Each structure stands twice: as C-alpha cells, then as structure tokens.
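Go through this chain.

——
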Amino acid sequence: HFLPQITEKPFIYVNLPNVGVAKHIAKRGVCIERFTFPFAEADSINSLVENTLQRFNNDPEAAQFILADSPFAFRFDTYQSSVSQEEKESIVKSFGVIPFQGTVDLRSPERKFIVSISKSKCYFGLEIARSKDKRSRFYAKYSLSDREYLGPTTTDMELALLMANQGKVMENSLVLDPFVGTGGILIAASHFGGTCFGGDIDVRVLKGLGVGRSTKNTEADIFTNFVNYGFQKPEIICCDTSRSCWKSGEIFDAIICDPPYGVRASSKKIKKDAVGTILPRDNYHGARVFEDLLNLAARLLRVGGRLVYLLPTIRNSYSKDAVPTHPLLKLVGNSENILSKKISRRLITMEKLEAPVNIENEEGKEQFYAGIREKWFLKNDN
C-alpha cells in the first residue's frame, strides 16, 4: 500500500515507539535515507512556515526541539524537483519568524532541520536518524568492484542486503542459499550475523575453476570473500537441490536465493536412467525450479521462518496469480525490480505457516515460466 504514495512522494509516515528503533532500522536500512520528526506539511513553502509556527505555539514537544540551545542547520531533500542555492537561502530566511535557539553550524550541527520538497508537497521536521551517505554506508566495503572472487551472476550487494532484511536475518540466524554460486547473498547474511549454509550443483563455481573468477589473479574460491571480510566460512556442499540433499527438519530461519531460472545462468539438474546410473546433467525448467524451491522451504524452514527469492517476469503478461504458492507458505512481500521496459524480477517473500491453507488457481502457473529464457531475449515484444 506504500507504492502509490512513493510514486508521487517518497516521504512516508510511520509510527515507531522511540528514537532508538528509528536508529536501529536506519543502521541496517538500504533504501531509507533518514527518519524525521515531522513538524508540518503543506502545499507551499509559505503555508509550510505558517503550519510550523502553529505547531510550535500549540505543541510543547515540537517547541522543545526548536528551543534547544545547541548548534543547528537546515538541510534540503528534493524529489522530482530542484531547488537552487538562492531559493534555499530564501526558504531558510522565511523560517525566521520561528524563534530557533542555538547557533548555526553548517559543518557539524547537533540538530538538522529538514525541508523536504516534492512536486506536490513540502515537509518540515527534525532529523532523528539517518543512513550514512552512499559513499560511507555500511555496505560500501562490500562493493563488487573490490571483491576478490566473483561470478557472472553474483548478486548486487544492495539487493542481497534487501533480501537478507526481508528474511529477518539477525545474529545466529541459520540461513541457507540452495543456489549459492559465489556466495554473494550469504555475504549479506553474514554481515547481519547469520550462520550460513549453501549448495550448488556446479563444483566449478564453488572451487573457482573457470566459472567463478579471481579479480586479483589469485587462487580464489567461494570461501575467499568470507575470509577477506572476517566472516565465518559457510558450510557448503555440492549438490542437486532438485533432490533431497538436505536432511529433513525445521532447521533454518531463512532460505534466501536467486534461483537459476535459465536467464543469466543455465539451470541444470542431475539425470538418472532407469537403473539409477547418473547421466550428463539435464535441463531444469523454470516452473519446476520454483516448485522444488517452495517444497524445500516448506520442509526445512521453522514455523515463522522466511523464504526470499527472485522471480523473473515479463512485465506485460505478469499476473499475481503467476506467483508460485504452497499450502505451508504465506506470501508476505512482492516487490518489482524493473530491469527494462519489457522485463523485471519480483522480490518474493514468504513465511512458513504452522498449518497448511487451501490454495486456489494452481492450474496454469507453469505457462508463465515455460521457456522464460526465450521470452526474456525475444526481440519482438509482441
């Protein structure tokens, strides 16, 4: 329900119990810029100043922030609009009717008053928590450009951290990536304190034999980045996730992955003949990948644990009915990651239930993911 609001203005009101909670969220937030204690909103700057003055006169809590005897400064947020330096100075002067106390300190103010301006609304408030600027955010050190071991499909760190947040990964959470590749998602889970496990059918990417590559001309494998960041090494096995390679039991707090649906990387599984002889690997079709993944999650997640994964979609034919379902998994998140006018991925989050629920509209889901690779790269959109 936030999405229509964010399209017009990325300023969302939230109710939090205290400032400490805001600071905790900001500390691990990827898309959040800041939390602001709101004084007023309006359709114009003049009305914003008037509403702020009225709030100051009628609300002791707001007044105490303005009257505090500590250094302060004004900062500006803009969205789908721009404000020149001359306009900023004029706006600051217009707030002169409000009796701010303390000295102005533009370099290191203790109080930052925020003027937020979008195309349709203006807001004024006091910053109470902020994620650092992009160059100094906590995840800057995990940049793929600085990472020693990479693969062709290593997950972008910001996306991996979003997925770990969706999975509610915290200290000592047990986290599984059944399509681990070079371990990018488990790096994010490790940052938040997760104890990590992974599996992949391709031993080459695990051992750095051609598919995964060292960016520094060193001997590197899936464990190299974990050692470089000072994280505990994950437990990794070479396995076929389409088969029961993990012992049954409600073990994991989160299963987080980017399944190999055949677009950026080929999807394969083990093939056996009638007498059980292992043959060269067989194609692993898109719909079956997600069916097996959901079955794995239902079997291995604890009640309340979360499955987080990326789902490829063709935008003009996407339907919410196409999202894979399972009687023991409840859909709690479905966000679009737009890649182009034609294609996107959905960030899907599901939660393990204690008892199964009835599922409707199961028939026909496979059609959405049959030949997904061919559909993604089809030049004619029609």
In short: The longest helix spans residues 286-300.
